[in-house]
Amino acid sequence: MSLEIVILAAGQGTRMRSALPKVLHPVAGKAMLGHVIDTARELNPQRIHVVIGHGAEAVRERLAADDLNFVLQEQQHGTGHAVAQALPFISAEQVLVLYGDVPLIEAPTLERLLAHAGPAQLALLTVALDDPTGYGRIIRDARGQVTAIVEQKDATEEQRAIREGNTGILAMPGARMAEWMGRLSNSNAQGEYYLTDVIAMAVADGLAVATAQPEDAMEVQGANDRRQLAELERHYQQRAACRLMAQGVTLLDPARFDVRGEVSVGRDVVIDINVILEGRVVIEDGVEIGPNCVIRNSTLRCGAVVKANSHLEGAELGEGADCGPFARLRPGSVLGARAHVGNFVELKNAVLGEGAKAGHLAYLGDAEIGALSNIGAGTITCNYDGANKHRTVIGVDAFIGTNNSLVAPVTIGDGATTAAGSVITSEVPAATLAVGRARQRNIDGWQRPVKKPKA
Ligand code: UD1
Ligand code: CA
């Protein structure tokens, strides 16, 4: 059956107390609405309609994509009114309604819901709640068939005692929608057009209403304020941590681990506390990540080790390579197999060959460093002249003394050595020693300055 999805995202979210539209508040680094859109995509719908209103421009700008049809709901007159705005664009047999501020909903739950929906059947996602305050209540007849949804504000005492709540997520036959939407009225406690009124209409028209429940109640939890947002964040992180542990990762403390993106992991990976993984991170077998590391858009090959307090972005560590503690690898940093970058070393657009080392306190930018070469402490590639960037190319098995300034563009040949404290401004041929510093002078009988007596 053809499927279209309508995501309601026009509400204001006053309780967020924010200039940012509610649905753009992030969970795990991604806008709540972005999560809902991605989950919607997993269902391969013909089209996704996103109903926007508050902060419409910001939402559209942030999330625009070819498969999304943004529909403006200028004034928010209720969920029924919101869906009605998308109606002119809908032609599918099946229509699924999702909420932009309910980000943890999962595709398998929606697939189960859709399995219950059909041309003569609606499907509602409901949830059993300890405290159903604020939710629409699911009204069932003596045979247990759903007959209506009554909103909290319109409910009788008796109805308010019902603990089965409406999640708001439902699937209905597209062909019937226009007629039902046309019959919605706003004569209720809130003066709104309730999408939930469709249920009683469908029942009156002789359609059946099936129900399904989420695997996990947090899937249908919305975020109305920042406390709820934080709860969703923690739940998401818990789920992400469990997933990785199930794949063979040891997390020293799953409660102190955050994923904000997509991570693929091998087996026997060990991750210490307070590690944040962002963007696309690939972690192969046997990798170890020390505490307090931030790793973004990076690849760690088999057996690589990232020691405590390192920050990696757009970096690749080859097999058995290691960095840190306190290493900073910026975009374009590539460490060959078993290469080593130690503490307080910054790399940017720099490639270290197999087994190359930069043990301490260095800045290597726009550089290519051959296998087995050693970069002394305090070495700086002077790659920027204030206008342009220039490259430093160092051959295989070179030895760069401590505290060198390598003024790029410059080339240092295979097996070359540079003396400590050198400023290297021109090519160093292979297998030579370059001494680029002033010769030491010793001055005999030198008198230290003496302090003037105070007047
Ligand atoms: C709605 C349901 C209620 C359900 C609850 C679950 C109705 C009438 N009620 O109530 O049965 O238990 O959700 O949270 O449907 N929105 C728009 N335009 C509007 C109004 C709302 O886009 O004009 C969007 C909101 O941004 C939000 C969603 O629809 O994402 C739900 O709106 P909200 O006002 O939170 O509905 P509730 O009154 O909580
Ligand atoms: Ca709500």
Automatic annotation (TrEMBL):
Binds 1 Mg(2+) ion per subunit. Pfam families: GMPPB_C, NTP_transf_3. Gene3D superfamilies: Hexapeptide repeat proteins, Spore Coat Polysaccharide Biosynthesis Protein SpsA, Chain A. Mg(2+) binds at residues 101, 224. The keyword Signal does not apply. It catalyses: alpha-D-glucosamine 1-phosphate + acetyl-CoA = N-acetyl-alpha-D-glucosamine 1-phosphate + CoA + H(+); N-acetyl-alpha-D-glucosamine 1-phosphate + UTP + H(+) = UDP-N-acetyl-alpha-D-glucosamine + diphosphate. InterPro entries: Bifunctional_GlmU, GlmU-like, GlmU_C_LbH, GMPPB_C, MobA-like_NTP_Trfase, Nucleotide-diphossugar_trans, Trimer_LpxA-like_sf. SUPFAM superfamilies: Nucleotide-diphospho-sugar transferases, Trimeric LpxA-like enzymes. One of its GO terms (biological process) is lipid A biosynthetic process. Residues 260-350 form the Mannose-1-phosphate guanyltransferase C-terminal domain. It is found in: Cytoplasm. Its main location: cytoplasm. One of its GO terms (cellular component) is cytoplasm. In the N-terminal section; belongs to the N-acetylglucosamine-1-phosphate uridyltransferase family. NCBIfam families: glmU, PRK14353.1. Catalyzes the last two sequential reactions in the de novo biosynthetic pathway for UDP-N-acetylglucosamine (UDP-GlcNAc). The C-terminal domain catalyzes the transfer of acetyl group from acetyl coenzyme A to glucosamine-1-phosphate (GlcN-1-P) to produce N-acetylglucosamine-1-phosphate (GlcNAc-1-P), which is converted into UDP-GlcNAc by the transfer of uridine 5-monophosphate (from uridine 5-triphosphate), a reaction catalyzed by the N-terminal domain. This is Bifunctional protein GlmU. It comes from Pseudomonas linyingensis.
